[in-house]
Amino acid sequence: MLAAVGSLLHLRLGLAFRCAPGTPLEVARRRFAASPVWSLPRYSSDGASSGRGPAGPGKVHRVPAEHRPSQFDKKILLWTGRFKSMEEIPPRVPPEMIDAARNKARVKACYIMIGLTIIACFAVIASAKRAVERHESLTSWNLAKKAKWREEAALAAQAKAK
User: Minimal CA–CA distance to 98: which of 75, 73, 62?
Assistant: First the structure.
């Protein structure tokens, strides 16, 4: 039996051949260029080849190290432990290495900020406990400030009256 899938026509016997989209099945059946299904390139849903076909498995058609790292990128590569010194960093590195180092640096920075936030919370708690021991509170500060403003207003009113 035949099953039409996109532009491929699959035979139940493990054979398939290409036909134009919209080609009637009768015309497609008459084609003689049948080939095994496993020799055709397969594509994933995002359009990338699965490694089978003319390109061969694992072949990538681009320069492997095509990114020139900036000074900031070099510092990130050092901080994340990719290289031990600035002299070890090559003039061109793969963009995937830069992306991985940036992601690792981002995670490290988040952990540092989390740690600093926790330390700041403990510092505020300790400061508040000391303020309670001295009988200080925001309410007492506001009352003292308003009393000072009233005194200043009263002195200014007396100065104007003279």
Answer: 73
The C-alpha torsion from 93 through 94 and 99 to 101, rounded to 10°, is: -40
Q: Where are the domains of the chain?
A: 2-39, 71-133
Tell me the three state secondary structure of residue 2. Answer: strand
Q: 104-151 pLDDT, tens per residue?
A: 999 999 999 999 999 999 999 999 999 989 988 889 889 999 999 999
Packing angle of the helix pair 95-133, 71-79 (nearest 10 deg): 70
In DSSP notation, 73-117 reads HHHHHHHTTS-SSGGGS-SSB-HHHHHHHHHHHHHHHHHHHHHHH
The pLDDT tens digits for 54-80 are 555 555 555 566 889 999 999 999 999
Cα–Cα dist 81/70, whole Å = 17
Give whole-number Cα distances, 142 to 44, 149, 150, 156, in Å.
67, 11, 12, 21
